[in-house]
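Attaching the record inline, Q. Sequence:
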Amino acid sequence: MQAVQKSVNQKELSAADLDVELMGFITDYLATVEHPCSFFVHARELLTNEDVSPDDYCVLVALHNKTASEFPATAAKYEAKVITTREDEHFAALFLRDETVVLPDHALKSYWNAPFARRLLIVYQFADAAILENVPMTESLIHDLCICGVTAQSGSRPTYAELGGDAVDTTWDRPIYVLDNRHIQRKDMEQDKSLST
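Structure, as predicted:
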């Protein structure tokens, strides 16, 4: 697929820009894992000082062992590709920040068969900063994600070993595949509280 060159708007957020209760819920989960995670949430439930519509969603990408300077977004390219995991699972995925961060398509939608939104709000939670990024979901990018989704489901995809497997791994840790993808809503937090009391 061709990389999309349209610009990405971004800004740094403060702790006051993020809902304290929801961030606490996310932080509690992150304390139990050591890998990158994503959280698909209603934008209004997470972003306290942004002008968002009731239909806007946001994906928080937690890269808690990385710093923002390691993932600059200047002239960031983003594109759709098919990824193959070590377990030979195939996913359509969105490659972000000059192909350094990879999100499977199911991390970007409210449910599997939902249409993609016209814009994708992403909060990168780094060790030293939180960055809000507004990625325009153009017709061509949505089309590419859909084509990759169909391709990923076909039975003729090569296996991880056939693609070179660990032999193609490099000494640096890029791209980062964010494969622990959670969908949360405020009602999930309320249910979790009732279970723990």
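The chain is about 20% helix and 30% strand. Residues 67 and 194 are 35 Å apart (CA to CA).

More tomorrow.
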